[in-house]
Amino acid sequence: MLACDCDYGDDAEWWYDDTAEVAPLATKRMRRCCSCKERIAVGEDCKPFRRWETISYSDAEVLQRIYGEGGEFPLPTWYLCDRCAGLYESLDGLGFCNLLGQDMREVCREYAQMQREAGVFRGQMVVSHKTPNG
């Protein structure tokens, strides 16, 4: 679902770093795209997203002892395949938020539908010309 409100405040359950560039997957094993779930083989282009979560009072005691209450601990890195990474970067560049973890193909379909409903078709705004008599 497309969203333009990017103000997360301090209420985010987890957050990520999206500054990494698309590069060959440099892990020991393949990964799955967090968007389309397609397999990303070692050496194929992808975009990694390092993620973290804040420790809260309700978290397990062991996490609090290791990271401290209010500290942050790393979550598994998510990856976007090259195709989904391109879609992500395009939608992010348009100002949409909360994209990571969604199916980028579905989000692009939603964006296209929004454009059609707004009268934009293939980059052209549909303009109705009224005649002086009508």
Q: How is the topology of this model organized?
A:
Blueprint (H helix, E strand, L loop, with lengths): L13 E4 L5 E2 L6 E2 L6 E2 L4 E10 L6 H7 L4 E10 H12 L10 H14 L2 E2 L2 E2 L9
Antiparallel strand pairs: 1-5, 2-5, 3-4, 5-6, 7-8
How would you explain this protein's 3D organization?
With 134 residues, the protein is α+β, with helices and mostly antiparallel strands. The chain has one domain (14-120). 25% of the residues lie in helices and 25% in strands. It is built from 3 helices and 8 strands. It has helices at 61-67, 82-93, 104-117, and strands at residues 14-17, 23-24, 31-32, 39-40, 45-54, 72-81, 120-121, 124-125. The longest helix has 14 residues, at 104-117. The radius of gyration is 20 Å and the shape is flat. The model has no long low-confidence stretch (mean pLDDT 82).
Summarize the main sheet: 4 strands, antiparallel
Distance between the termini: 40 Å
Report the strand count. Answer: 8
- SSE string: EEEEEHEHHEE
The total number of structural domains is: 1
